[in-house]
């Protein structure tokens, strides 16, 4: 009897000994990267000189006396982010203009020289205290580019200003969960009164290894964000989405063959990452909640709706990345009520969607369990609250299946899958089936899972059984989460469009009982004009619309239109292009592109528009190409007006800041409205050189 008992104990101990965890696969995350990944969503807050000057990038010559956000309240801003489900904020402590929002010792161009709180204020300290009270994480953004500093471009700037500013932030405003480093490096600026262009070697100037060592020493828990990492990479766009297939591993490549660094990465590879990449560098998806990063009154009413944010959530967090949403307080230091309401609605939708995992309480039947050790590697861990407990298979089983018996019909449209990324990103293909009418039916498939995969179905499905099939993996699997969820019902916002003849159409994804709209800046409701057919709207202005179905009201859509272009003609441009080709610039089709004929970088490219009659002009619009390419996008411009097409006078000139990363329509107001029949748009400089490109130009 004793021998049999000893043998049984020996077998048990031996089997436990061999029931080892799967070997890690590929590059692996560090503890700080895991902490960052678990954050999932945070907000980056832009309030600085560009807010006061109504620009996207301030120049660096702004007088600190104009900075006075008299109603600034960090608690309200951070509370709004928290209500949206965000877990932290990143404070833009210094943007490219060089103005510091804390009383730094490195430059007099800081908040101490402003009238806010009589020069005794410290926005960073206010944010820090708000985060502490509300249980939110805090990070800092410090632009490496400084358009104010006379030292920028010299080694002294890096050692005595930039790195010293980082040390001040790390020492006085921690603990920090993130240190954010921008890719904008060098260009024109004030530079202590020189007003010139300064260029630097982006790969070597900042001495990134030495700079990052400061972060590691003073804020060891902070993940470092940069175009090439080292902890978190930029996703390569400012539209808020990662690749449909997404890898947290990445091998950064420089655009010019040098060492990859901030501002010098082949960004076309960033959304997807690198399968079996050399490093674990997951992506952040940054996107402004408004069209621009800084507040502009002209963009009121254009804040991303709650359901637009939901869509971005599934395309960022739902693909394994993290979402960084830009918030833009106004000149008084406050978020608009629209911004606050949309954050609150977004947070409520997320909370309601993921409140109940319909897979909890289900019976799981796995085709394989590692070493038959269900208590260690069984599928019951898929619905617990531990993000790193997991179902694993034997080493020779890389394509297992899992049947989930729900025991009763369940309705859902969201499926959540996660891998235990402590063991790497392993799976290269998975499919989901539901059991209907006595057989299995595939409803979704993905090529990657990683830290978090949310599969959002186009419609609800009802079933009693769900099957997960792993269709491709180089090694055995280690899946940590399986969930089924249902979004609350909602109406989609209307889509407003106008053709070249000036007819406005308003449509919805699905038929609705009513659509109501306004054209006079008023707010639409069931009592405003009901849309029944396309209507003429030839002037410039804003149209707002809602959809109504079953007593429920959709979110509002806001669309601004410039003057209708019917009857407009274009003369041959200065590069010799034909007028017919140039008509693509005024065809009211965002997807066509006009390309100037000249490729000489030094030669200005201009087109002249005859509006057919004399009009009073308040401003201009330029829409860059919308095909995800940057070649030829205009970043410096000049607008001229004429009554006769012979004598011209310049009414606007400047730069389209940040247009390469955020290619939205640029609206330029002129100080004094002018009468004119003709206008001329000149591209003084374009991104990537060569011909200039225009999707649309217009006036209002």
What is shown here, in short?
This protein is of the alpha+beta class. Helix 4 (74-83) packs across helix 5 (123-134), helix 4 (74-83) runs parallel beside helix 9 (337-353) and helix 6 (155-172) packs parallel to helix 7.
Describe the structure.
This protein is an alpha+beta fold. Helix content is 17%, strand content 31%. It contains eleven helices and 35 strands. It has an eight-stranded parallel beta barrel with strand order 1-2-3-4-7-8-11-12, surrounded by five helices. The longest helix is centred in the N-terminal third of the chain and has 18 residues, at 155-172.
Based on the model shown, name its key terms.
700 residues, alpha+beta, seven-stranded antiparallel β-sheet, 11 helices, 35 strands, 17% helix, 31% strand, globular
Helix content estimate? 10-25%
Low-confidence stretches: 1-17
What's the end-to-end separation, in Å? 96 Å
Give me the count of strands: 35
Radius of gyration: 28 Å
Strand pairing plus helix content: what structural class?
alpha+beta
């Amino acid at each position: 009897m004793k021998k049999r008992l000893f043998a049984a104990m020996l077998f048990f101990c031996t089997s436990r000994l061999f029931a080892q965890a799967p070997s890690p696969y590929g590059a692996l995350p560090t503890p700080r990267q895991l902490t960052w990944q678990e954050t999932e969503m945070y907000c980056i807050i832009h309030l600085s000189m560009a807010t006061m000057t109504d620009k996207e990038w301030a120049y660096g010559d702004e007088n600190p006396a104009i900075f006075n956000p008299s109603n600034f309240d960090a608690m309200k801003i951070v509370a709004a982010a928290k209500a949206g489900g965000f877990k932290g904020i990143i404070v833009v402590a210094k943007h490219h203009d060089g103005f510091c929002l804390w009383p730094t010792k490195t430059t007099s161009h800081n908040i101490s020289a402003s009238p806010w709180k009589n020069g005794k204020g410290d926005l960073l300290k206010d944010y820090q205290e708000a985060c502490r009270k509300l249980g939110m994480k805090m990070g800092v953004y410090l632009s490496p580019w400084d358009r104010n500093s006379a030292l920028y471009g010299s080694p002294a700037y890096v050692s005595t200003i930039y790195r010293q500013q980082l040390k001040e932030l790390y020492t006085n405003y921690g603990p920090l969960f993130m240190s954010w480093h921008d890719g904008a490096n060098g260009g024109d600026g004030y530079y202590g009164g020189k007003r010139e262009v300064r260029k630097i070697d982006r790969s070597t100037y900042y001495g990134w290894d030495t700079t990052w060592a400061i972060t590691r020493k003073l804020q060891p828990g902070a993940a470092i964000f940069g175009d090439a990492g080292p902890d978190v990479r930029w996703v390569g766009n400012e539209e808020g989405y990662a690749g449909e297939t997404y890898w947290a591993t990445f091998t950064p490549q420089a655009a010019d063959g040098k060492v990859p660094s901030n501002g010098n990465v082949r960004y076309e590879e960033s959304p997807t990452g690198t399968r079996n990449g050399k490093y674990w560098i997951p992506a952040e998806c940054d996107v402004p909640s408004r069209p621009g990063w800084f507040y502009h009154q002209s963009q009121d009413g254009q804040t991303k709706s709650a359901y637009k944010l939901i869509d971005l959530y599934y395309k960022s967090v739902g693909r394994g990345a993290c979402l960084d949403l830009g918030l833009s307080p106004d000149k008084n230091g406050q978020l608009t009520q629209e911004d606050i309401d949309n954050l609150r609605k977004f947070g409520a939708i997320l909370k309601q969607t993921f409140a109940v995992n319909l897979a909890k309480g289900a019976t799981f039947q796995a085709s394989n369990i590692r070493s038959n050790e269900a208590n260690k590697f069984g599928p019951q861990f898929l619905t617990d609250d531990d993000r790193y407990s997991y179902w694993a298979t034997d080493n020779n089983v890389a394509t297992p299946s899992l049947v989930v018996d729900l025991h009763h019909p369940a309705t859902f449209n969201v499926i959540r899958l996660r891998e235990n990324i402590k063991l790497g990103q392993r799976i290269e293909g998975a499919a989901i089936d539901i059991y209907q009418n006595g057989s299995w039916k595939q409803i979704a498939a993905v090529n990657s899972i990683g830290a978090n995969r949310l599969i959002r179905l186009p419609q609800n499905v009802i079933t009693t059984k769900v099957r997960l099939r792993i269709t491709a993996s180089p090694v055995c699997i280690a899946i940590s989460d399986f969930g089924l969820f249902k979004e609350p019902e909602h109406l989609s916002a209307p889509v407003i469009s106008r053709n070249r003849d000036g007819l406005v159409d308003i449509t919805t994804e699905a038929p609705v009982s009513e659509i109501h709209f306004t054209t006079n800046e008023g707010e639409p409701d069931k009592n405003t004009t009901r849309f029944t057919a396309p209507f003429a709207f030839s002037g410039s202005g804003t149209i707002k619309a809602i959809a109504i179905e079953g007593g429920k009201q959709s979110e509002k859509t806001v669309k601004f239109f410039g003057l209708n272009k019917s009857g407009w003609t274009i003369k041959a441009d200065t590069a010799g292009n034909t007028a017919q080709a140039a008509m693509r610039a005024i065809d009211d089709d965002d997807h066509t592109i006009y390309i100037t004929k000249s490729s000489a970088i030094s030669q200005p490219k201009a087109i002249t528009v005859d509006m057919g009659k004399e009009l009073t002009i308040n401003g201009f619009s330029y829409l860059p190409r919308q095909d995800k390419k940057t070649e030829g996008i205009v970043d410096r411009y000049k607008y001229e007006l004429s009554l006769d097409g012979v004598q011209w006078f310049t009414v606007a000139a400047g730069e389209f800041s940040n247009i390469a990363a955020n290619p939205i329509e640029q609206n330029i107001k002129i100080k004094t409205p002018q009468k004119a029949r003709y206008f001329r748009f000149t591209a003084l400089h374009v991104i990537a050189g060569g011909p200039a490109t225009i999707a649309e130009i217009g006036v209002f």
